[in-house]
Amino acid sequence: MGHLSTMRGDMYRRFKKRKLGKGIVLKNQQEVEKMRDSGKLVADCFALLHESIQPGVRLSELDRKVEALIIAHGAQPLYKGYQGNPPTHPPFPSVICASVNNVICHGPATDQRLRKGDIIGIDIGVRYNGWCGDACVTFPVGAVSPEVDQLLRVSKEAMDKGIAAARVGRRLGEIGVAVQKHANTHGYSVVREWGGHGLGKELHEGPSVPHTGPKAQGTRIKPGMVFTIEPMINAGAADCLLMEDDGWTVVTADGSLSAQFEHTIAITREGPVILSPWHETMKGFAYI
Question: Mean of the per-residue pLDDT values for the chain?
């Protein structure tokens, strides 16, 4: 679940931007291994969804399947009941975030049915043995157009570029530059208001991870950091709007499609290590 910064629009809420280096909790090897277990459970949830997403299925059906798998493993869903900011913000109503077509992020799992040609970004968070796991995948629903296929491929590649840039000694802004350069090269825009975040015993820890430049922003990356890289890539303009009717759903301002892929990574001196291996559990998934 992406971290709040700012929103644009006269009729929409505005949020304060967190400092990029605030509240960082470094993890030792034993703690990283526990987070790897949490990430594996998230990846298993995506494997289940890969078999279930098809035209006609309701978002609420997908939500129930994921909830059942999480509970069967003795874990807890992170998003359902999550209280936003400020404290009067309504709690999130579902286990998964289900963001269809022009929904950028945080779409509740309603009774909406998927249609052939849709895309759906699903974000899943769990707490397992006290440690959090978090990831997001955008799925095509049946066959999609070449233009939509390219959006999904470039969005996945942009995340990969960001992960590759997450090296010890670099600043967090270098992740954003890598993501933004790849997306912009293909004619897409990157949502600025929502970024990655640290992860550990809590869903949102430091640092905040930008998905755009400048290169020099943010703290320097250190071994033991664990955070998400989760760029939201729009086919049109980067502007986004928060819908007031539910207080959660974020949409593209121009109605264009948006796609997102997310991994949780641990920083080591040898390089970043993926802790949410959905790319291994979803056999045959086109965007690996």
Answer: 92
Flag the least confident range among 44-48, 56-60, 216-220, 274-278.
216-220
Q: In residues, how long is the chain?
A: 288
Annotate 96-146 with DSSP letters as a single string: EEEEETTEEE-----SPBP-TT-EEEEEEEEEETTEEEEEEEEEE-SS--H
Closest CA to 98 of 288, 260, 224, 265: 260
Question: CATH assignment of 3-277, given 3.90.230.10, 3.10.450.590, 3.40.250.10, 3.30.360.10?
Answer: 3.90.230.10
DSSP character string of 188-202: -EE-SSEEEEE-SSS
Question: Where exactly are the structural domains of the chain?
Answer: 3-277
pLDDT category, 248, cuts 50, 70, 90?
very high
Give the pLDDT score at 3: 56
Whether residue 154 has pLDDT greater than 70: yes
Output the six-digit token pair for 70: 């999480």
